Amino acid sequence: MTNRGRIFVISGPSGVGKGTVVGQVLKNVDNIYLSVSATTRKIREGEKEGVNYFFKTKKEFQEMIDSGQFLEWAEFAGDFYGSPKFNINNYLSCSKDVILEIEIQGAKQIREKCPDSILIFLAPPSFEALEERLIKRQTESVEKVKIRLKKAKEEMNETKLFHYLVVNDDLKEAVDNVLGIIRAERCRITNVK
Amino acid sequence: MTNRGRIFVISGPSGVGKGTVVGQVLKNVDNIYLSVSATTRKIREGEKEGVNYFFKTKKEFQEMIDSGQFLEWAEFAGDFYGSPKFNINNYLSCSKDVILEIEIQGAKQIREKCPDSILIFLAPPSFEALEERLIKRQTESVEKVKIRLKKAKEEMNETKLFHYLVVNDDLKEAVDNVLGIIRAERCRITNVK
Do A159 and B121 touch (CB under 8 A)? Predict the structure, then answer.
């Protein structure tokens, strides 16, 4: 067994509540750190630079791609998202676990580049519920919401790439399930086939 | 994905606290049932027929072996232990999960016969702690305690057959880890390689 930290990837369709679940998870477990992503999307009300995201222009983001600074990156609904390598590797080498809250295309890259990563798909209880949440959020135009919903339907076919599926119907239940997965993976005997 | 229930096997050296951990786990999670084992060992103070074990004579136990009534059985420190098939299959076919609290030889049999089972090894924080517990328990002769300790040392080499290792140092922590494993396995996407 290695003492290197583990990567937990939390992914799922837009509006499923990844940020809320991850926030609650981080409050309830030790020795795990959030990898703050970089993005070109506009900052939303209440979000903070360096806390929720590193907000970048498209030019800055492209420069980070070109200089190999991302562990994964993806374009999603017209914006770019990526996980900078700095910090992640530091945490892992100090036996600390890392959570990546990322889009599904990014999760696929992590699965290939870091095959020991644990991939959790956060799913909505239904599409109707997802639509309602995206509209309620009022952070985007109707058109962008439509793009995200269409994408979400496609993405539900990608769950087979993940190790775990957590339905975010009741928030506490979803958070407890993710916490359970973290506990379980920390007890896992890695040399079992 | 199937709707059939899962088998969770909790095993580990004598005196590690399997019974206590399992008792606490059952109080804190729904839809999971304990498979009551049959044994030829003597009933201990506070134990009840049909609750802790089905207590059998060696002749009765042998008849159950001969008529194929066990999912697994093993001899351990001079006594026989086995998991009767009745009930287990009923639970599984009704999508209910089952806990087997069994000896390590039995866990090996379950791993072969039911490869989808989830095997949890409950380990003592140290051998000294284990010795202290076995002596404190005062349920057996010094000689039997010695046999159990020798066996326990051998058994620690068997952990690689298990999926999870939970150290029973702090009881609450051990119980929370087993509960986490149950939650995680219920979220697992079974067709992932």
Answer: no
Best probe of the A interface among B1, B112, B119, B187, by most A CBs < 10 A, is: B187
Cα–Cα distance measured from residue B108 to residue A104, given in angstroms and rounded to the nearest whole number: 38
pLDDT in tens, B111-164: 999 999 999 999 998 888 888 888 887 777 888 888 888 888 888 888 889 999
**Predicted model pTM:** 0.86
| B177 contacts on A by Cβ (under 8 Å) | 183-184, 186-187
B65 touches chain A (CB under 8 A): no
Q: What is the number of other CB atoms lying within 10 angstroms of the CB of residue A193?
A: 4
CA–CA separation, B115 vs B106, rounded Å?
13
State the ipTM, two decimals: 0.84
Which segments within chain B are labelled E, that is strand?
7-11, 32-35, 37-39, 53-55, 70-76, 79-84, 97-101, 118-123, 164-167
- Taking the Cβ of residue A51 and every Cβ of chain B, the question of whether any pair is shorter than 8 Å is answered with no
Q: Which residues 79-138 of B have a C-beta within 8 angstroms of A?
A: 120-121
Identify all chain A residues contacting B184, using CB atoms and an 8 Å cutoff: 164, 177, 180-181, 183-185
The token pair that represents B121 in the structure block: 């090894």
Tens of pLDDT, residue by residue over A157-192, are 888 899 999 999 999 999 999 999 999 999 999 744
Are the Cβ atoms of A192 and B163 closer than 8 angstroms?
yes
- Tell which CATH classification among 2.60.40.10, 3.90.980.10, 3.40.50.1820, 3.40.50.300 matches the domain B7-187: 3.40.50.300
Contact A29, A53 (CB under 8 A): no
